[in-house]
Structures are given as C-alpha cells and as structure tokens.
C-alpha cells in the first residue's frame, strides 16, 4: 500500500480556506457510490448533451471534490453522471461541472474564480479542455504539456480538477490536479511569483482484504464458491491451491466448509484496480482440514501455498492428472473388459470426454511420446525424483511433448481420447516407483519443502497479518 507523498503544501486548505475533511488515512469503506463515477454512470434520459448541470450543492471547495460529489444525493450524482456522460458523448465542447465558492455565488453575476472537475477519456484532451474552460491559450498549452510529461502518453481516463480566475479566454490557473485512475499524477499550485509549485502524486492504491466463507452445496464447488461471493476468476486458483491435498472431484462433499480471502487494490475513487489475488484458502471435509497461505519465499519469483507451519503444499506429484474426471477403474485385479480374464490393472482410469486436458503430474523429462500398440497415443514421463508417470489412450499429444523435452508440473501434455485398446474416452494413468507400478491414488506423493530461517520469519508475519484481518471479519 502506498500513500501519497507528503505534499509541499496542504491541499486540504484549498478553496477559500475552508478546512476540508481529510481524505487520509483511508478509514476503510468508501462512503461514495462508485457506480456514479465515470463509465459506470447512467446518464439521465433527458440530460441535454450540452447543458451545464447545476452545481450539486454549496460545499466548500476542496480537493476531494471528485469523491465528495459522489457522496451527494442521488440528484447530484445524476447531475454529475450527466456531465460525464455528456462529455463522453464527444459533443463539440466538453461539459464541465462548475462549482463556485460561497463568496463568488454571493457576488453573482461576476464570478472571478471557479473550479472545474471532470473526467477525460484520454490525456490528449487536456489542452482543449483547458482552453474551452476559459484558460488563456499559452497557459493551457503549457499546463497540458506539463501534465503530459508527468503522466505519459498511456491510454486511460484522466481525472482533472482545476481552479481558475479571470475572464473566459484569458483566465489563469490557480491550481490543477490531474491524475490517472490509480491516483498517480500531478498537482500544480500558483506561487506568489506567478510560477507553480509542482507536486507529484504517487499511485494511491489501497489494498483491501475480502474474506468469504461458505459451504459446499449439492451442485458443485464452483457454484458454492460463486454464491458465497468468491470472485469468479479466483475459483480456479482456489482449486489449484488444493491440488496436492484434495481431489476436488472425489474428496469434497456437500456440507464441507471452505473459506477464501482475497486482496484487491482500489484507487482513491474506490474503484477496483488490477486483478484480485487469493491470499488464503481453507477447506474442511469430514476426513481432513487444510488451511493454506500464499507466500513468495525470499529470493524466489513465484508464490506458492504453505500451511500455517510454513510447509509447502507442493508434492512430487499432483493428486490427479485430469480435472473433472470420474474414476472408472481403480488399480488392482479385475476382469479385463476386452480380454475377459483376471488381470492386474496397473493404473487408474479416469473417464472424461474426448478433448479433456491431461496434465503432467510432476515436473519431468519426456521419455516416450507417440503411438504404441494397445497403449494408443502414449506419453511416459521421468520425474526429477526418478519416478515415472504413464498416460495412455490419448486423443492427441501436444506437439511440444517430444522425447527429451522438459515439462512443468501441471503443464498440459495432451487430451483424453480412446486410442489403442480402449472401450471409451478415458485416461489410463500409471505411476511407477523404481520400475514398479503403484496405486496412484494411495501413494504418498512426497513431502514439500519447509520454510526455515528468515523465510519462515517473513512467512509468519504474512500469515499473522492475514489471520488478523480474517479475525476482524468473523461474524
Ligand atoms: Zn486402465
């Protein structure tokens, strides 16, 4: 979390010396409705595109105008939304929401200063906006160039607040705040000598943790998680976090309890920025209970999942090499469906539709890849610990899976099919330890690394941070 740099002047004192409510520190939930801001705004049906909306209320001029406006009543929000929508509709001139100081309102009809607050579709509109706001051409160009230099050329909305005085066409800027949606930007304020004090604003993103708890319903983990409020895009992450601990198809039942905590950055307007990030998951079934924390060990680039004691969940092999598959035949003696006699079934069969992805159960080197008699399209991997995994009857082997290639754990190697001696689409999967086939569903798939020393100390701090926030949201 990054706060703004301490300003060289206090922007809270702007606007006729009215002390304004501080917008920092962020006390948590925004008090305004972000739906009224920018693109989410619903323009009122009758809003004439070029009319100037009424000032929403008499309020002290303050730098948080843009946020406070959103806290006003519906009428004000709609008026403002109308202004934004009208502007966005690109009529010849930008429509500005103009707000005047108490003194100026009292002194109508000759205001000498005013404040404008608006949202631009892009940074290229700055200069025109200044000019149509009444600022003298030279100063409009200079201010736009300065903002451009600070904010860069990138695409995206620009939020603009400026104060000016003078008559339209020759007015001068008193102050200017121009920011991108993450809060990064520039503040200029007129000095006594006619120049400007400049202050950079760093991105003022605040991260909030959301904790969601729920119970597995009769349909699926997916539907349970969505109805509990887990963001759609995080559900795959949740399942992956448990890929070594639970078989989400077979070991999770209705009534099991799950919890997820995810972080989301918000800009100063309260809008979500970037993608949410899962930081904690837990799952409690009748058989076992696991709680995991996302953590990037010092010196490593990738985050992993660790239990509360700092043990990594990573195992030599994943629990299963396919998602959403039904076990159609287990390891052991059985009557062979085609050959008709008792035979040791050396692996586990996972039935799933043709085309279902098959993943490498662990990081490995490809030892065999291709068609092989009754095996059909067949891949054999040799894992880093010397174990082998075998994948039979594939519909298709991915082109990069060639002998000698290295594959990462969880990387797709092919798709389910029914090639070779097979009665329907399924994966026949074997695990060999020291050359012997073992039951893939019951083997101990290896233990993960545990954090030690500094890594463990850093992990504990992170774990405690997440736990404190989880406790704070408990019902
Ligand atoms: Zn089989």
Please mark out the parts with pLDDT under 50 across 5 or more consecutive residues, or reply none.
1-111
Number of H- or I-type helical stretches: 8
Q: Total number of β-strand segments?
A: 24
- What general form does the structure show? elongated
Mean pLDDT: 76
Estimate what percentage of residues fall within beta strands. 25-35%
How many structural domains can be distinguished in the coordinates?
3
* Biggest beta sheet attributes: 8 strands, antiparallel
Helical content class: 10-25%
Classification by helices and strands = alpha+beta
Give the names of the bound compounds: zinc ion
Q: Compute the gyration radius: what is it? A: 31 Å
Q: State the end-to-end distance.
A: 26 Å
Describe the fold and architecture:
The protein is an alpha+beta fold and 475 residues long. It has 3 domains: 11-201, no CATH class; 222-314 and 451-472, Roll (Nuclear Transport Factor 2, Chain: A); 326-438, Distorted Sandwich (Glucose Permease (Domain IIA)), CATH 2.70.70.10. It has 8 helices and 24 strands. The chain has helices at 65-71, 74-88, 102-106, 126-132, 137-151, 221-228, 235-241, 453-472, and strands at residues 97-99, 113-120, 158-165, 172-180, 185-190, 196-201, 206-215, 257-266, 272-284, 289-295, 304-307, 326-329, 332-335, 342-345, 348-351, 357-359, 364-371, 377-383, 388-394, 396-397, 406-407, 412-415, 426-433, 436-438. Strands 12, 15, 17, 18, 19, 21, 23 and 24 form an 8-stranded antiparallel β-sheet that branches. Strands 1-2-3-4-5-6 form a 6-stranded antiparallel β-sheet. A 5-stranded antiparallel β-sheet has the order 7-8-9-10-11, with helices on both faces. A hairpin with a 6-residue loop joins strand 3 (158-165) and strand 4 (172-180). The longest helix has 20 residues, at 453-472. The radius of gyration is 31 Å and the shape is elongated. The protein binds zinc ion. The site of zinc ion (ZN) has 5 residues, from loops.
